[in-house]
Amino acid sequence: EVQLQESGPGLVKPSQSLSLTCSVTGYSITSNYWAWIRKFPGNKMEWMGYINYSTSTSYNPSLKGRISITRDTSKNQFFLQLNSVTTEDTATYYCARSITPDYWGQGVMVTVSS
Amino acid sequence: DVVLTQTPPTLSTTIGQSVSISCRSSQSLLDGDGDTYLNWLLQRPGQSPQLLIYSVSNLESGIPNRFSGSGSETDFTLRISGLEAEDLGLYYCMQATHAPLTFGGGTRLELK
After folding, report:
1. pLDDT tens, B8-24?
2. For an interface test with A, which of B6, B23, B48, B108 has the most A Cβ atoms less than 10 Å from its Cβ?
3. Distance CA A35, CA A97 (A)
4. Residue of chain A minimizing CA distance to B91
5. Interface test with A, best of B23, B59, B101 (most A CBs within 10 A)
6. Per CB distance under 8 Å, which residues of B are interface residues toward A?
7. Fewer CB within 10 Å: C terminus or N terminus of chain B?
8. What's the pLDDT tens digit per position in A26-60?
9. pLDDT tens for residues A1-14?
């Protein structure tokens, strides 16, 4: 069974970087697409970007170059880094498989606050 | 970016009823390959979102057939026939035809 699990700090200070890990079991990340999606307080969902089987990436332009998605195939993990965070980046962050997101992690709530 | 407008924002109903949720796109979601990448997801309280329907009308594995999707180009509908308690939650449409991928604002399905 495919399972995804996010991990990372729940509190980040403004102007710092947010770093999250998605650990995948039951499926190799050398296949398919692997995405980060976030849900803001109040229900708005935003697709942040993905990394695919050949390590190509695509990012939401709204993130204005602050985002990077990378992977470690030896650990079957992929990562999100979001730089220069503000309080507006407070959200629940999900990792998911595929452009049609068929498997999701349980989500990690990240608060940006001093 | 493609804007997806979901209506209604809240739907109050009773168990056993049939309901429909609309999703309208600011652009056609028909891709050059002939497919239309419009999906529906459900987020139950306290859970992660779950894929229900992909490419307008294809039922994801394990999803009961009381869920159905229809539509084309810019107008899409999710229908639930014979609502069950486990169907309550927040429904989203999302499109994957145009970058960046975008989501509708959500429809909350609740009991009257």
Report:
1. 999 999 999 999 999 99
2. B48
3. 6
4. A43
5. B101
6. 1, 37, 39, 41, 48-51, 54-55, 60, 90, 92, 94, 96, 99-103, 105-106
7. C
8. 999 999 999 999 999 999 999 999 999 999 999 99
9. 999 999 999 999 99
For residue B105, give every residue at least 6 positions away whose Cβ sits within 8 Å of its Cβ, in sequence order, or none.
A43, A44, B4, B5, B6, B9
* CB < 8 Å to B94, chain A: 45, 47
Contact B91, B78 (CB under 8 A): yes
Helix (H) / strand (E) containing A47: strand A45-52
Q: Tell whether omega for the bond before A14 is within 30 degrees of 0, i.e. cis.
A: no
Structure token pair of residue B64? 């009961």
Other Cβ atoms less than 10 A from the Cβ of A64: the count is 10
B85 burial type by CB count under 10 A (0-12 exposed, 13-18 middle, 19+ buried): exposed
Helix%, strand%, coil% for chain B, nearest 5: 5, 50, 45
User: Residue A59 has which token pair?
Assistant: 């990012």
If contacts are CB pairs under 8 Å, which of residues 53-92 in chain A contact chain B?
Answer: 58, 60-62
How much is the CA Rg of chain B, to the nearest whole Å? 13
Strand ranges in A53-112 using DSSP code E only, listed in sequence order: 57-59, 67-72, 77-82, 91-97, 103-104, 108-112
